[in-house]
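Subject: sequence -> structure tokens, single chain

Hey, anyone have a minute? Need the predicted structure for the following. Not urgent.
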Amino acid sequence: MSASKIARFSKKKREIFLQALSETGIVSTACSAAGIVRATAYKHKSEDVKFEAEWEDALESAVDAMEVEAHRRAVTGCLEPVFYQGEEVGHIRRYSDTLLMFLMKSRKPEKFRDNHSVELTGKDGAPINDCSAKERLIDMLDRLSDRMDNAQNTGEEK
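Reply:
Had a minute. Here:
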């Protein structure tokens, strides 16, 4: 890719990029809207602190819009048409339990998060002791070394 292609990023293209990024949250889509390549956007982001901040603000706006839509689908629901014999006869409101759970987890993670814990213990449930692990490793290496010595000695005697 030529340096001139990366370098072109007018004020107007920058505005278009940031607007599209705030609407979609997708860098590729924002680049297409502004008529630039991704390398141009990322180059300017890495070199311009103000642009980097505007980029992050645009992404936050996109995430906020997604959260509003997720809330609408989870809490208000969506009307879907009901058909009978090929004719629309009414509507049913569908809600998204999955989106509702994600929203609950994001708002109150201490209450709704998936609680997983892993507890490591030593032999017979004893606590793991770094010293004992080191000693066991040294012991295993010593035994392995003895086996190798025995195998070599046995091989030499034949």
